[in-house]
Structures are given as C-alpha cells and as structure tokens.
Amino acid sequence: MATHFVAEEKDLADGQHIIVDVEGRSIGLYRLDGEFYALHNYCPHEGAPLCKGPVCGTTLPSSVYEYRFGREGEIIRCPWHGWEFEIKTGKSLVNEKVRTRRYKVEVENGKVGIVI
Ligand code: FES
C-alpha cells in the first residue's frame, strides 16, 4: 500500500469534492465537517460514476403524509437511478450491506493523500 497525494488541504473547502485518478481507479475525494473521505467513483447498482452525482440530503423517517428532509451535504445521489449513499461510510441508505468502496485518507504537511 502507498499514499498517493492528490490535493492540497487548503484547496478543498468543507462541502467540496474532486474526482481524481489513482492507480487507474476513479475516486471521489470529499471534505465534510473538516474531515476527508475517499469513495470509489462507482455505483454498486449498475456501475454509474457515483461521484458525479449531487451532494445532497435525504428524507428522514416521519409520520404518514409528513415529509421531513435533513442530512444536507452528507449524501451522494447516484446520477443514474438516484440511489443514495453516505459520504462518511460509502453505505447505501436503503441497505447498509450495499456500499461503494471507501479508501483511507491521510493528511501530511497540508497535502491530502489516498491510500491504495
Ligand atoms: S447505477 Fe447508481 S443507482 Fe443505478
């Protein structure tokens, strides 16, 4: 395993993300609540480029005929069929056994690296 530095910490503000290629893999690098998260840019449903989907929130549990929206900025919505995934874990909101791969991220001297 090696750390591949792909960005400067100062260039990725909270709530932003970039898509990078590392060792032939397309990976979305997200900054959320001050932390960095790296997710495989691949939807486990039918293989869409997941990280090209919008960062958004989702509907929350609620009573019948009531719609509550929350978790703004914590979710990626797949651009093909709308499956939603947590940025922090890569897990699908519908079934936590379905997930996209998550990579370890290291920050060293202001540089952000993905461990592969
Ligand atoms: S390919 Fe992502 S929801 Fe279908």
Automatic annotation (TrEMBL):
Domain of life: Bacteria
Keyword entries, A-Z: 2Fe-2S, Iron, Iron-sulfur, Metal-binding
Top-level taxonomy: Bacteria, Bacillati, Bacillota, Bacilli, Bacillales
Domain Rieske: 4-114
Xref: Pfam families: Rieske
PANTHER family assigned to the protein according to its UniProt record, in alphabetical order: 3-PHENYLPROPIONATE_CINNAMIC ACID DIOXYGENASE FERREDOXIN SUBUNIT, FERREDOXIN-RELATED
Listed GO MF terms: 2 iron, 2 sulfur cluster binding; metal ion binding; monooxygenase activity; oxidoreductase activity, acting on paired donors, with incorporation or reduction of molecular oxygen
PROSITE patterns assigned: RIESKE
The keyword Iron is annotated on this UniProt entry: yes
Name of protein: Rieske (2Fe-2S) protein
